[in-house]
Task: structure prediction
Amino acid sequence: MDPLIISGILIFLLPLIMFPIILLLGKINANYRKYAGPMATSAIFISFLLSYYLYINGKNIVFESQWFYNFTWGIYVDPLSISMSLMVSGVSFLIHMFAIGYMGKDPNKHVYFAETTLFTGGMLGVVLSSNMVMFFLFWELVGLCSYLLIGFWWFKPNAASAAKKAFIVTRVGDVLLILGLAVLYWQFIKFGDPLSVTTIINNAHYVDKVQLAIAGALILGGAAGKSAQFPLHVWIPDAMEGPTTVSALIHAATMVTAGIYLVARIFPVYIFALPWAGYLVLYIGAFTAFLAGTMGIVMNDIKRILAYSTISQLGYMLAALGLGIVATENTISISIYHLIVHAFLK
Result:
């Protein structure tokens, strides 16, 4: 197998493998728990180095292998996915470095680092998946990890409540996402693997515009859940009840960026859909940016101010994509540039 393909797979596989290792070592012997932070950080740093290796190589990589039925699994590496991979692994590495000291005295730090490693691995899987079924499995893994991490200090009533709220609200978006993917499946089934990223990008212009618009609107609902867009934005201010480093992961490198990436990844679906789908993306993003910005102004708690700031900035990113769809211009680079700058800022 090509070393580039192996590198691409290892980017998300290494953090996933590290999850059970860290968890088991911490359970076997409490003395091993002090190694959890360095182990998690090392795995994510290697993922960053592998991402950089693919970046400097400069090649688009599409690897797909038969999975089940007529679905494939694999990796899809292009400027969009590798930029996201560098951001996710790079920011997550810095957060894990800080967390080694921040969580050093917590008796369950091995559980924390196992979950954050799984969280990061899930997000890397989201951005590198070559198939929307594989994408959705990683998408759900990210949602599960967010529930576990927001409620990490489960003995605090506010943290437990915030975790449940985040899980339930994002599940609403996930139902819409499943419905949207189902519409894409029936429209693209005649092209081979109906939910392959390659199939969707290359054949969107052959599909009925009405069906693309319906699929795009439903998928936008899924993106709104993860990226805290109106009306599914209500979970993120309460998510600050988790450890501060978890808030940094959610607001910067993982979860909330997944929805923006999803819209950018299937950009051709919106380009070739009826115009109202693009206007929907634009209006939801613009309204969310305005609403969250004004709500943040009147907050007194610094964590809530940061939460509404994140929602507002995500609204700008989504609006930029919507503007590009309406104007039939590729604004992905503008939106993702904003996303990456915002990630390092937060």
